[in-house]
Amino acid sequence: MNRKELDPEKSPQAAFGARVRSFREARGWTQDELSEQMAYSSTHISAVETGRKFPTLRFSRSLDTAFGLTGAAESFERGFGEMRNGSLLEGFPEYVAFEGRATEIRLFEIGIIPGLLQTPEYALVLADSAIKRGAITVEQAEERIKTVAKRQAALDRRSSPLFFVVLDESCICRPIGEPAVMEGQLAYLEEFAGRPNTVLQIAPFDMGASRSFDMPVTMLTMSDRSLMSYAESTHRGHLDRDTSFVLPILTAYHQLQTEALSQAASVAMIQKLRKGTP
Fold it and tell me: What is the pLDDT of residue 174?
């Protein structure tokens, strides 16, 4: 029997799944036996335990009924609420699980350096700002920073993915934190562009209407060459694996790359900004 090791620290979704397994095994139940207590198949339970499927409120309540936790402080319903209302958007933990296994990553961002390219100092300024606005708590800010670090570490593996990044010019022109923070962030972008598995391009303001996207876009290519896209609204993230939807986004991304500055010209723009940074 193949037993997948779980890492509860990977994401809130992974922690939820690990807790389900822990409760199940503490009672000596197999997934089939737990399935008999719930209105879900053992396959569905396995997917939640291993973090491949995001739990729902209904699933969480069914777990509480099976384990006798309904209304308890340690109920799965309460855990689901904390996870959903935490600093990570609904759908994002599911995306991160795929991101760490992707062979190619394509990313377009507007206004801010994306998490996978943020320096710790840059990420800290953003988190502190969100705390001051009352958007998140200190604990949620710490969770965000840890998540950024784990995502970056997951991509720094022996078989690193090909990483294509197009940043709108606003990402590098918008000052975040003290000048030293931006200097460090711009220096990191320059170093990132020099890696053998990365391509970094800037979409300049003068692209105007020829810029393909008006919102951030992320695309993943998996080892079986399947494609998926991820996008966020204010309150949730959405992972899409429907080829008929994803392929047009891939086409638009290639058009964006064609119109954007070359990597050499993009690095030159970053260097010019660095020279003007105190």
Answer: 94
Q: Are 92 and 143 in contact (CB under 8 A)?
A: no
Q: How many CA atoms lie within 13 A of 45 on its CB side?
A: 24
Radius of gyration of the chain (CA): 21
Cα–Cα distance, 64 to 62 (Å, whole number): 5
Angle at 141 between CA 199 and CA 193, to 5 degrees: 10
User: Taking the mean position of all CA atoms in its chain, how far away is CA 101?
Assistant: 12
**Lookup: tokens for 230:** 């991820």
Element of type H or E holding 230: strand 227-232
Indicate if the pLDDT at residue 207 is higher than 70: yes
pTM above 0.70, yes or no: no
Close Cβ partners of 204 (under 8 Å, ≥ 6 residues apart): 169, 260, 261, 269
Decide if 135 contacts 89 (C-beta within 8 A): no
Residues 13/93, Cβ–Cβ less than 8 Å = yes
CB-facing half-sphere around the CA of 114: CA atoms within 13 A: 24
Kindly state whether residues 152 and 223 are assigned to the same domain. yes
Task: Note whether residue 202 is domain-resident.
Answer: yes
Strands 237-240 and 104-109: unpaired
Counted domains in the chain: 2
Regarding whether 24 and 77 lie in a shared domain, the answer is yes
